[in-house]
Amino acid sequence: MTTGVAIGLLGYGTVGSAVDRLLRDRATEIERVAGSPVEVRRALVRDVTRARSASPAAGVLTADFATVRDDPTISVVAEVMGGVEPTRGYLLELFAAGKSVVSANKQLLARHGEELFAAAERHGVQLRFEASVCAAIPVVKVLRESMIANDVSGVLGIVNGTTNFILTAMAAGQDYGAALARAQELGYAEADPTEDVNGADAAAKIAILASIAFHTRVTLDDVPFDGIERLEAIDSAIARELGYRIKLIASAERLAGGVTARVHPTLVPEGHPLAAVEGSFNAVMLRGSAIREITLAGPGAGGDETASAVIGDVMTVLGTSGTGFFTHDGYFRQVAIVPEAEVPSAFYLRLDVLDAPGVLAQIARVLADEQVSIESVIQRAAAGRAQLVVTTHPAPEGRFFAAVNGICTLGVVAGEPHVLRVLPR
Ligand SMILES: NC(=O)c1ccc[n+]([C@@H]2O[C@H](COP(=O)([O-])OP(=O)(O)OC[C@H]3O[C@@H](n4cnc5c(N)ncnc54)[C@H](OP(=O)(O)O)[C@@H]3O)[C@@H](O)[C@H]2O)c1
């Protein structure tokens, strides 16, 4: 193909090779939509000699970034190589060279979005990032474009497929280690799954979603997060008994004093749309003034799924270049980040306590002193000790954790307290 639109790729791995293959497999349909053929002209890799399962056209692969940046026939580049550096620097050079960029890189955008959007705008080019959050689910497009007439007040989602796969297995009785091993065996979890299971991947995604939902910068550093590594099968079992499922929930909300975005394993009431999201699927609920609530669900990862979103963004760039529509930076507000200690949450607290008279009363008193009110209590006795599970009504997080610290100094608790958030029924 010698005429038509040429695009560049930074990266030719799982996603990059899928972009190339889908563009070729669907060439006729894409040409109909775009008005001309779209082909990958250059793709940057680390090692051009490495054996690959995908087979790019001759001369496409290069290990020299300048051949992508300086190719005058390329107007759009898809960044599908990952990493923060040198990727950030490459994007800045591409913008300066007048090229728009489509990126699948949540960590880069959640850390350096402000600098990158400013640079793209300065050079009159676009930066699009649908594939960086939930792969095939078009949540970025919906938030940025379809919700313009809405005042978005909340985003609530399951945005990491690996952890949702593990939590689904744990809900069926597996323990954490076995569920993680199974996820790795099936290719849902990386060999090093740290960023998935500790919540960092989800934190980067909710930082991006909060920024576009509320038109203010929320960076990764603004997002408190914890993961699922400390969850035990007993927590899943007790949650079920209480009528909940445990999910890793990424949430962003507008509160009186500003905005909050965070990621925590959370008890979700059965019957809630997010409780039904199983396996490696993702789902995001959006709350807005005019739309009330929208839930988008689907596969949140995978080469083809991510490539589909990358190609969608490439087509949008081609379709909107030069018009100025959606090319500018949409973050026009500066809203305060509410410290997590002030955010109200309901909690599940599991304690291993002495099975002795008065223990429950002492714990209840400490909670009451911090104005945390109890919703339910379950107690199970076992050989001189008891598992005590307390669920609370919403209270500022700082007060709840002050109460937990107080409870731990009573001398009646063994081991670490197990704390989970609870979504309202
Ligand atoms: N895979 C998914 O399901 C998925 C889903 C959503 C988002 N994403 C995002 O998409 C991006 C790509 O993921 P992937 O799974 O396709 O990764 P991958 O399979 O590891 O591919 C990375 C590609 O980038 C190239 N590369 C990496 N660092 C480079 C450097 N410094 N200089 C030149 N080339 C470099 C690699 O070259 P070599 O081929 O020579 O090694 C490889 O071709 C990441 O940001 C990821 O977070 C992936």
SSE blueprint:
Layout: E1 5-10, H1 14-25, H2 27-34, E2 38-44, E3 61-62, H3 65-69, E4 74-79, H4 87-96, E5 100-103, H5 106-122, E6 127-128, H6 139-146, E7 152-158, H7 161-171, H8 176-185, H9 194-197, H10 200-214, H11 233-241, E8 244-255, E9 258-269, E10 281-288, E11 292-299, H12 303-320, E12 344-354, H13 359-369, E13 374-382, E14 385-392, E15 395-396, H14 397-408, E16 413-422
Parallel strand pairs: 1-2, 1-4, 2-3, 4-5, 5-6, 9-16
Antiparallel strand pairs: 7-8, 7-10, 8-9, 10-11, 12-14, 12-15, 12-16, 13-14
Helix pairs in contact: 1-12, 4-5, 5-10, 7-8, 13-14
The structure holds NADP nicotinamide-adenine-dinucleotide phosphate.
The site of NADP nicotinamide-adenine-dinucleotide phosphate has 24 residues, from helix 1 and helix 12.
